[in-house]
Write a structure and sequence with these properties.
Layout (H helix, E strand, L loop, with lengths): L5 H17 L5 H24 L1 H6 L1 H40 L1
Helix pairs in contact: 1-2, 1-4
């Protein structure tokens, strides 16, 4: 039985992170697919690292690079969600003020 391939998992995760970043907003299905694949490859890479820590050490450079890109991806998603929530709250407050 072959062991986990940490480098391949990290490479795939990096590909999907880049693809998500390149896709325009109006390509909702493609962006949804990219988000699902990012979640899959993050879980796979984490599982592979736990199962073969020595391979993770040999792929440390790509792990750092992918880690930075992943952190940026999650910060961008959190910021977008926070902004959308803020706009929704402001719109509700404005509607209450106008119609009250």
């Amino acid at each position: 039985m072959l062991g986990p391939d940490v480098a391949q998992s990290l490479e795939s995760l990096e590909y999907w992170l880049e693809r998500h970043g390149r896709l325009p907003v109006y390509r909702r299905r493609a962006r949804g697919e990219a988000r699902r694949m990012i979640a899959y490859w993050q879980a796979k890479a984490a599982s592979d690292v736990r199962r073969d820590p020595l391979a993770a050490l040999t792929a440390a450079g790509s792990a750092v690079r992918v880690g930075r890109r992943t952190a940026g991806y999650h910060v961008q998603r959190a910021t977008s969600r926070l902004a959308a929530s803020g706009f929704t709250v402001m719109a509700v407050c404005l509607a209450i003020a106008v119609f009250h």
